[in-house]
Amino acid sequence: MTTHMNFHEVRFPESLSFGSVGGPQRRTDVVTLANGYEERNTPWAHARRSYDAGLGMRSLDDIAALIAFFEARQGKLYGFRWKDWADFGSCLPSGEVTFEDQVIGTGDGATVAFQLSKTYRSGAHSYIRPISKPVAATVKVGIEQEELLLDVDYTFDASTGLVTLAYAPEVGRQVVAGFEFDVPVRFDTDQIQTSVASFQAGEAPDVPVVEVRV
């Protein structure tokens, strides 16, 4: 089966992911040459995020909700949506989503389909991250300074992040968007071990979650 079929469009409970720890992971191969210089390469175009969901558990009811969610996903089998509280929007965490937050493409007079994306900038360098799991109610799209109307000027697929415009933007005109988004993930374990005594003593269960490509 493909990943697309093995994905449930359901979000892990936000209240349980709030206390989790995690973030992006890169893979870089480093080779030190005879002259002391390094060659560094990466086989990954995009980071892969991982989290520990166990740290967000605050009560036995939380544990029960976690186990129910785990069982409904059949362990590793089905992917799901995860809110990364440190990085879930097209704007800064302190800001409000607007349709002008991110440039997702430039008109060529023919293209009508554009993938939602988020650009991370530091100095002169940037990285463009495709966004495949937007939160449907938050998506806003525009062309330059003009906001477009959903179902009139554009439609979008919340399961892929693909925006389809009703007409092709003119050459050179920027297509912009704002949104909140989830990370597509799966459990990275087929077993959750919990003990009431150890949990009440402050020990969190180990529940690894890892990003999947969709």
Q: Can you lay out the helices and strands and say which pair or pack?
A:
Layout: E1 7-11, H1 14-17, E2 21-25, E3 29-32, E4 38-41, E5 48-52, H2 60-72, E6 79-82, E7 102-106, E8 113-115, E9 117-122, E10 125-130, E11 140-143, E12 146-147, E13 154-157, E14 162-165, E15 174-178, E16 183-187, H3 196-200, E17 208-211
Parallel strand pairs: 1-6
Antiparallel strand pairs: 2-5, 3-4, 5-17, 6-16, 7-15, 8-14, 9-10, 11-12, 11-15, 13-14, 16-17
- Content of β-strand: 35-45%
Rg (C-alpha, Å): 20 Å
Strand adjacency order, main sheet: 1-6-16-17-5-2
C-alpha termini separation: 13 Å
Structural class: mainly beta
Number of helices: 3
Structure description:
The chain is built from three helices and 17 strands. The protein has 214 residues and is mainly beta. The strands form five sheets. The chain has a six-stranded mixed beta sheet with strand order 1-6-16-17-5-2, with no helix packed on it.
Task: Give the tags.
214 residues; mainly beta; six-stranded mixed sheet; four-stranded antiparallel sheet; 3 helices; 17 strands
Brief overview, please?
By secondary structure, the chain is mainly beta.
